[in-house]
Give the backbone structure.
Amino acid sequence: MGNFSSDVQVRFRDIDAMGHVNNAVYATYVEQARTEYFKQVLETGLDAVPSVLASLELSYERPILLEQSVTVEIDVPEMGRSSLPMTYEVLADGERVATAESIQVFLDPETEKPSPIPDRFRERIAEFEGLADAAGSQTD
């Protein structure tokens, strides 16, 4: 899948009455990985980037158990003018257990309206992901 992966610790509190990771926790695992992506690829914390999560879709394939090792792989297939679509594979012991898609929208810090992805971020993502169009796509 993607060039980026993040290991996630399964905590006892993630387990529900059925004995596996609760479905809502998968979104937290994806969020943790997205936060790591911003730290490593953009060299800044997600909290320092004026943006908002506009959508998140999760598809579940199998449960995750407490003793399993979890990794989230991320791919950025393209960039919009202000939107950053990301796809995810959640793996437990190396086997896919879920997939997800999200869209992060960059905002103007003053108006809080969608704003173009800053060039410095666009260039880092394009280089990391091997995207040809660092100047920006207009797919918003």
